[in-house]
């Protein structure tokens, strides 16, 4: 970063990170119970890795998504020879998405996003009040 | 000169602004594993800035920045407690606004004195 972080950068980048997390949660939930013909082709849940980004110049810290990784349990094998996607052994592979965990993650993400918006609104109104100083 | 006109309030406003950024950083990192929350001890920072010998606002804020001691440490090493941070952020915002009100009053007094109304 060439410029020192401002409070708007801090909250804005945190909101982007939370949005990435919300997108991964949506992908995971959309693919819950998805079936594939092989273990490699089956969907695995994805998670973002958050990393703090410190700014020496201003002493502030914001958060970035370092990477998005696949995590969670391996797909479950189910014997179902009548399934159109079944392999030679008559098995299909179901995506093992922990729906409860995803929903809890979604709530936490939404709360964090709202908190950052609150910070942004407060900071904005205080800065505007400062600009009106003496009028 | 400006310091004499506005007394402690100029430095207080700068420190409040610095502290707002720090608490915003804590709130931004509420879900980052291993993040350690920090805060400025406002009273200590203000007396460091006010002390004779004139430390800069940034140096004063830095000398009074401490890590927050969590009420209940979490397993992932993150020490941000949203309840604490939100309360302190609100408190700091109100204090910022009070400082602005003091400054506004001072400016009005001065301009009335200048105009001689």
Outline the structure in words.
- The complex is a heterodimer of chains A (135) and B (117).
- Helix content of chain A is 42%, strand content 21%.
- By secondary structure, chain A is an alpha+beta fold.
- In chain A, the strands form two sheets. Chain A has a three-stranded antiparallel β-sheet with strand order 1-5-4, with no helix packed on it. A two-stranded antiparallel ribbon of chain A has the order 2-3.
- Chain B is mainly α.
- Chain B is built from five helices and two strands; from the N terminus they run ααβααβα.
- Chain B is elongated, with a radius of gyration of 17 Å.
- Chain B starts with a helix and ends with a helix.
- Chain A binds chain B through residues 5-7, 10-11, 13-14, 18, 21, 50-52, 58-63, 108-109, 111-112, 115-116, 118-119, 122-123, 126, 129-130, 133-134, and chain B through 13, 18, 20-22, 24-25, 27-35, 58, 61-62, 65, 82, 86, 89-90, 93, 96-97, 100, 103-104, 107-108, 111.
Helix content of chain B: 55-70%
Number of extended strands of chain A: 5
**What's the pLDDT, averaged over the residues of chain B?**
91
Uncertain ranges of chain B: none
Q: What spatial order of strands do you see in the largest sheet of chain A?
A: 1-5-4
Largest beta sheet of chain A, briefly?
3 strands, antiparallel
- Using CB atoms under 8 Å apart, which protein chain pair has the greatest interface? A-B, 33 and 33 residues
Q: Count of helical segments of chain B?
A: 5
Strand content of chain B: 5-15%
General shape of chain A: elongated
Radius of gyration of chain A, in Å, reads 22 Å
Percentage of β-strand residues of chain A: 15-25%
Radius of gyration of chain B: 17 Å
pLDDT < 50 stretches of chain A: none
User: What is the N-to-C succession of helices and strands of chain A?
Assistant: HEEEEEH
Strand order of the largest sheet of chain B: 1-2
| Oligomer description | heterodimer
Largest sheet of chain B: 2 strands, antiparallel
